[in-house]
Amino acid sequence: MKINWGTGIVLAFIFFISFIMYFVISMTVNKKYEHDLVVENYYNQELEFENEINKQKNAQHLKEDITWKRVPEGVVITFPNDMEPSEITGKVFLYRPSSKQLDFESTISLSDHNLLIPDKRLLGGRWNIKVDWQYKGNSYIYKKDIVY
User: Fold this and answer.
1) Which of 106, 127, 116 is nearest to 71 (CA)?
2) Maximal CA-CA distance, the chain
3) How far apart are CA 90 and CA 95, in angstroms?
4) What are phi and psi for residue 3, nearest 5 degrees?
5) Which sequence ranges are marked TM in the entry (predicted)?
């Protein structure tokens, strides 16, 4: 049986479309490629954005900003030395862009200027740290992308 060039072109299109459809279906069905929204309540967070800008402006006026460093026990977040640690309140959010199951938050409770985030809670890779804290009625925010 001889196939003419018109039939060959049609068969080539059919094979090409089948090949593309196979990859599209396999990508949508496979759980490995399933991604969620960055955050669940995106629109509510967008409304809070103005407050966040004000907190960032307050943080820029500090003499000393929050710092972080990796230690064998985990990550240590150090608050400014000129502030009384017992009066610092707030929350630390750790966001893992690759998996929302690893996200967590911790309440700030300090006896000195350091807050330790234990190594067992952190996996190697990229993390976004967001420290939303208050001191004597003023609100501040610190954001940093780190690789642990």
Assistant:
1) 116
2) 90
3) 16
4) -105, 125
5) 6-25
Residue type, 65: D
Token pair for residue 134?
A: 């208050």
Cβ-based neighbours of 66, under 8 Å, separated by 6 or more: 77, 78, 79, 80, 131, 142
The tokens for 84 are 């009384």
Q: How far apart are CA 148 and CA 126, in angstroms?
A: 6
Q: Which amino acid is at 91?
A: K
Q: Could you tell me the two tokens for 119?
A: 């190594």
The amino acid occupying position 84 is E
Per-residue pLDDT tens, the chain, 148 aa: give them: 688 898 999 999 999 999 999 999 988 888 777 666 666 777 777 778 888 888 989 888 888 888 889 888 888 889 888 888 888 889 999 888 887 788 888 888 888 888 888 888 888 888 889 999 898 888 999 898 888 7
